[in-house]
Design brief:
Blueprint lengths: L1 H8 L6 H20 L16 E14 L2 E14 L3 E6 L5 H8 L7 E6 L2 E2 L5 H11 E5 L10 H12 L3 H14 L4 H4 L8 H13 L5 E5 L7 H16 L3 E5 L3 H4 L4 E6 L2 E7 L9 H13 L3
Parallel strand pairs: 3-8, 3-9, 6-7, 7-8
Antiparallel strand pairs: 1-2, 1-4, 4-5, 9-10
Helix pairs in contact: 5-6, 5-8, 8-9
Length: 301
């Protein structure tokens, strides 16, 4: 019976308990989809978004230092949803960046599963994972990773040409996106050493967005920028999110966190707080900050 189950589903489970875990997981996904439908069976995206983007099951990450082991993530069960601007917060060493890298496929967890739209990315080979990331994920880091030997425009196109067959269309799209973030044609031909940190970070964001990824992962994207440049980066990410792309961002900054509509708080590798906020707008009043501040204070932030 177990062999029949594996053959029909293309799985490789070794025990009945593993099969049971699979069935429960699939039932949960189906229930989540049903919850996001109205009485006529039509998805209503204007209500709370229940369409699952990612799930983790018993996710763990352990680092070895000499003869000791550090358990950074501990049996995390987490669900992320399409269209959310999810903020990951926590004290230094709580596992924020480790979690971001694990769920984005940039690093392999020690234990557990990461499902992206139902696909277990932890079971993928390195080559499969690289292709998956190019098509589905965008990455924005605190440290700018533009290639020094390439112009701003070519840096953006370096990602596009790996995925998109229409090169002329990719060039036009890149130019439009760069213009949208205030980088005009006077910048396109310059090299990273010739532009400011804020300009380089915006170019990095466009490189992350050029393939229209389903999820954008950002690790302290404003941490190395001055105030005005940081606000510019956040505006870009907020606008992208309004257009339907999912953002998962690590930050320790309260004002940056206000951009999110969901706040996850980590402590010692475990999510101990989960706050839902209304979608951000430039006119959001002080009550939004008070709500977030109270949430964080209760958790010992």
């Amino acid at each position: 019976m177990l062999r029949t189950f594996n053959v029909r589903l293309g799985c490789n489970y070794e025990s009945a308990s593993d099969c049971s875990h699979y069935i429960v997981r699939e039932q949960g996904l189906l229930l989540t989809q049903l919850m996001s439908m109205n009485v006529n069976g039509v998805f209503n995206m204007n209500e709370v978004n229940n369409k699952v983007l990612m799930q983790t099951h018993k996710l763990g990450k352990t680092f070895s230092h000499g003869g000791t082991q550090q358990h950074v993530l501990k049996n995390l069960d987490l669900t992320l949803y399409h269209g959310d601007f999810t903020i990951i917060m926590g004290s230094s060493g709580s596992g924020k960046s480790t979690l971001l890298y694990a769920i984005s496929g940039m690093d392999k967890p020690t234990l557990g599963e990461v499902l992206f739209e139902g696909k277990d990315i932890t079971a993928m080979s390195n080559d499969q994972l690289a292709i998956f990331r190019r098509k589905n994920c965008g990455f924005v880091f605190q440290q700018i990773h533009l290639l020094d030997s390439m112009s701003v425009l070519d840096n953006v196109l370096s990602s596009a040409f790996l995925v998109q067959k229409d090169r002329a269309g990719a060039v036009e799209k890149a130019k439009k996106l760069l213009l949208d973030v205030g980088l005009d044609d006077s910048i396109w031909g310059k090299f990273p050493a010739q532009i400011s940190g804020g300009e380089a970070q915006r170019a990095g964001i466009i490189r992350a967005l050029i393939n229209s990824p389903k999820a954008v992962f950002a690790d302290e994207p404003t941490g190395a920028l001055n105030s005005s440049a940081g606000i510019g980066v956040l505006r870009v990410l907020t606008e992208v999110n309004k257009q339907g792309q999912s953002i998962i961002m690590v930050t320790h900054d309260l004002k940056t966190a206000l951009r999110g509509n969901r706040i996850l708080y980590l402590q010692d590798g475990v999510v101990i707080g989960d706050l839902r906020l209304s979608p951000y707008s430039e006119n959001s009043g002080p009550e939004r900050q008070q709500q977030l501040q109270s949430f964080l204070t209760e958790l010992g932030w």
